[in-house]
């Protein structure tokens, strides 16, 4: 008898051609196949007597073939197979188009089950292209798989139809050894979920929609449960690790805060407090600091790093681009001009050290590495690429990562390899993560949120611009530029095609064609603005395929005011602080997620000028307008993120390939109740059995799970 781990190649009746195709879907064992779930069902459950059929009805009939013929239709040049089927109440004609082989399958005298729509022609009923299933004997009437029931429809691949998959799945389910349960029985009972064997049967071949529903819920629960269990275990593991505690000198801190040119907002203070508390613990911090663009995350992290430096410990500050690394370096010098413990910036192009009181020196990278290793430099700012290099630290206790959802397990491992002690980790992100996602997918993180913008900020005036008002908007923008302001233009987002479409176009599509399309869009927009609309202004463009140095140069020029209008794709440059940029213009606004639009808007409104955001859209659909209107009215990004999660699903927050998170879980994270109950179950089991010794199967599954999920 087959078990879940039996390779499909050892199962009778699956040919090499099928094995190949299945492997393309990542399906190698019986267990894999059984976990290839249908995404919907065709309802052919209504089995009717032929005499009772009604026009237009979806139905299944079962009877004997009394006659089969085939012919070419001379009108439409199609090949027709025609059969008459009769049961004890009457007979009906069925027609299939362009499936000539059917005349060899549907032989006279055979018992068949047909499902499809009842069509009327010349006052007579017939079935057009019905799904057919030949039955070998009366017993099989109750075991149909393609008709007479809820019929599963699967994600398909070339040459592997749902029908084909049903053929494979049904005998495996029938002949499989009893599957051992991996979920705790108590959790199943408490949440009224079916055990695994029923659930597998029900999800593939449900007797009722209720069964399908219950099975789906169970598997969603299972995924969420594993996800959260994996997070909780990750967190426990981190808590068991040792880190250097960094105390806070409160007097010193108060004085430092008094030295700032502004007062921290309430949530900046709260977040700083969270971080400093974490730093005092002998276990590594793993915290995400989230806050809208411009909410002032940098100063909070800088103050924490300064606290570590006060204790003569090293910190690292990592940014996604050189420009941002530079910005942080400048910010630090501006706010803490008297910092004398060595502040270095190291990027691909340069290395510099600031020694306090205006003293700054360029330095060879090899020299810098030595100074870092000896501990002479306490604060190192650089790009993410920094940690790819083998920097040896002297006493690294604190790592800050800017503009990343969180610090990946892999990156952490890398830093650990270089340095024996586990540093405290803080990541910062302007993309707010909805609460349900922070609970499940990012559950091993502690969270601090900056909820308000610094006072003195003027609200950004946001307008939805219909095509008729385009010229007016351009005139307004020109006027603003003439007053000395600068403009960001975001090009329409190019939708990454579905995996299915990518497959059709060949799999290299993603890298090649996507980037090309995107660059084409930017170039077109750039040329339009540069030549037609604003020939008198300085226009420049930025896109993902430009070399890092080119990008840096353009950003530098924009920051220096040498460029009036900067056209860019949605993917480049986050978090850049250009106070003089007062206009954000977004083309094809309807194509973006709400949270993303909100983020774009946050790039302006940082200086003292009144700022504007224009959402250009050609769509006049009311739903579009409503969505965009919620950006106009939005008070904070988190609200929009929650809305995005509702409308567009979690892909928006996790990237296109969904980082290895199972489909059902992806959908299930939108169900707060299921998130809550699965979390409860995960906590319960960990409390009783932290090592999962009584649940070896679960433990095994989790290990595989953690390997598959690669969130960064
Ligand atoms: P983000 O959270 O997007 O990284 P930044 O840290 O770049 O934001 O801060 C944006 C700007 O706001 C910076 O110029 C910073 O100096 C300023 N800022 C930060 N906190 C305050 C505050 N409490 N009051 C006034 N300005 C502040
Ligand atoms: Mg920032």
UniProtKB/TrEMBL annotation:
Its EC number is 5.6.2.4. One of its GO terms (biological process) is DNA recombination. Residues 469-646 form the Helicase C-terminal domain. It comes from the Bacteria. Keywords: ATP-binding, DNA damage, DNA recombination, DNA repair, DNA-binding, Helicase, Hydrolase, Isomerase, Nucleotide-binding. Signal peptide: none annotated. Residues 278-450 form the Helicase ATP-binding domain. InterPro entries: ATP-dep_DNA_helicase_RecG (IPR004609), DEAD/DEAH_box_helicase_dom (IPR011545), Helicase_ATP-bd (IPR014001), Helicase_C-like (IPR001650), NA-bd_OB-fold (IPR012340), P-loop_NTPase (IPR027417), RecG/Mfd (IPR047112), RecG_dom3_C (IPR045562). It catalyses: ATP + H2O = ADP + phosphate + H(+); Couples ATP hydrolysis with the unwinding of duplex DNA by translocating in the 3'-5' direction. GO terms for molecular function: 3'-5' DNA helicase activity; ATP binding; ATP hydrolysis activity; DNA binding. Plays a critical role in recombination and DNA repair. Helps process Holliday junction intermediates to mature products by catalyzing branch migration. Has replication fork regression activity, unwinds stalled or blocked replication forks to make a HJ that can be resolved. Has a DNA unwinding activity characteristic of a DNA helicase with 3'-5' polarity. Belongs to the helicase family. RecG subfamily. This is ATP-dependent DNA helicase RecG. It comes from Candidatus Jorgensenbacteria bacterium RIFCSPLOWO2_12_FULL_42_11.
């Amino acid at each position: 008898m087959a078990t879940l781990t039996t390779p499909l190649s050892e199962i009778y009746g699956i040919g090499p051609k099928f094995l190949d195709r299945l492997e393309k879907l990542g399906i190698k064992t019986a267990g894999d196949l059984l976990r290839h779930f249908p995404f919907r069902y065709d309802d052919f459950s209504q089995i009717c007597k032929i005499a009772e059929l009604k026009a237009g009805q979806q139905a299944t009939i079962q009877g004997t073939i009394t006659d089969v013929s085939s012919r070419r239709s001379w009108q439409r040049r199609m090949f027709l197979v025609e059969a008459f089927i009769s049961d004890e109440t009457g007979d009906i004609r069925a027609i299939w188009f362009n499936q000539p082989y059917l005349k060899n399958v549907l032989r006279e005298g055979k018992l068949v089950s047909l499902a499809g729509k009842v069509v009327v022609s010349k006052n007579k009923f017939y079935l057009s292209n019905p799904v057919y299933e030949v039955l070998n004997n009366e017993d099989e009437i109750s075991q149909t798989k393609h008709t007479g029931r809820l019929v599963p429809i699967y994600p398909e691949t070339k040459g592997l139809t749902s029908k084909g998959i049903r053929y494979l799945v049904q005998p495996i389910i029938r002949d499989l050894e009893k599957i051992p349960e991996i979920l705790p029985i108590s959790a199943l009972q408490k949440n009224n979920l079916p055990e695994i064997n029923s659930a597998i049967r029900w999800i593939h071949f449900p007797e009722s929609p209720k069964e399908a529903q219950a099975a789906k819920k169970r598997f969603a629960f299972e995924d969420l449960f594993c996800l959260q269990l994996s997070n909780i275990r990750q967190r426990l593991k981190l808590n068991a690790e040792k880190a250097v505690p960094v105390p806070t000198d409160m007097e010193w801190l108060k004085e430092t805060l008094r030295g700032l040119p502004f007062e921290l907002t309430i949530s900046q203070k709260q977040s700083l407090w969270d971080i400093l508390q974490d730093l005092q613990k002998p276990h590594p911090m793993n915290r995400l600091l989230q806050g809208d663009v411009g909410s002032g995350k940098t100063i909070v992290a800088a103050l924490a790093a300064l606290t570590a430096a006060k204790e003569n410990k090293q910190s690292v500050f990592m940014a996604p681009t050189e420009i941002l690394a530079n910005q942080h370096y400048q910010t630090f010098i501006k706010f803490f001009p008297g910092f004398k413990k060595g502040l270095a910036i190291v990027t691909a192009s340069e290395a510099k050290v600031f020694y306090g009181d205006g003293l700054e020196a360029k330095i060879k990278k090899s020299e810098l590495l030595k100074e870092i290793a000896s501990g002479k430099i306490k604060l190192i700012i650089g790009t993410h690429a920094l940690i790819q290099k083998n920097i040896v630290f002297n006493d690294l206790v604190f790592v800050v990562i800017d503009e990343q959802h969180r610090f990946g397990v892999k990156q952490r491992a890398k830093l650990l390899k270089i340095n024996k002690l586990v540093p405290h980790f803080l990541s910062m992100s302007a993309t707010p993560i909805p609460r349900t996602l922070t609970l499940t997918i990012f559950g091993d993180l502690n969270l601090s949120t900056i909820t308000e913008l610094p006072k003195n900020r003027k609200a950004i005036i946001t307008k939805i611009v219909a095509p008729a008002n385009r010229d007016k908007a351009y005139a307004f923008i020109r006027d603003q530029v003439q007053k000395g302001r600068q403009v960001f233009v975001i090009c329409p987002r190019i939708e990454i095609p579905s995996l299915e479409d990518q497959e059709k176009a060949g799999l290299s599509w993603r890298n090649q064609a996507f980037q090309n399309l995107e660059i084409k869009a930017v170039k077109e927009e750039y040329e339009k603005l540069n030549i037609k609309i604003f020939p008198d202004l300085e226009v420049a463009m930025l896109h993902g395929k430009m070399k890092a140095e080119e990008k840096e140069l353009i950003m530098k020029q924009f920051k220096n005011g040498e460029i009036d209008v900067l056209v860019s794709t949605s993917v480049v440059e986050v978090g850049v602080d250009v106070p003089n940029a007062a206009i954000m213009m977004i083309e094809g606004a309807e194509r973006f997620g709400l949270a993303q639009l909100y983020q774009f808007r946050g790039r302006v409104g940082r200086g003292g000028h009144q700022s504007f955001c224009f959402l250009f859209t050609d769509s006049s659909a009311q739903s579009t307008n409503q969505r965009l209107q919620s950006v106009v009215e939005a008070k904070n990004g988190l609200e929009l993120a929650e809305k995005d999660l509702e409308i567009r699903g979690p892909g928006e927050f996790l990237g296109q390939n969904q980082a290895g998170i199972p489909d059902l879980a992806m959908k299930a994270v939108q169900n707060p109740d299921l998130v809550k109950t699965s979390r409860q179950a995960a906590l319960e089991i960990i409390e009783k059995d932290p090592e999962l010794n009584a649940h070896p199967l679960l433990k095994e599954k989790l290990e595989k799970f953690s390997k598959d999920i690669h969130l960064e």
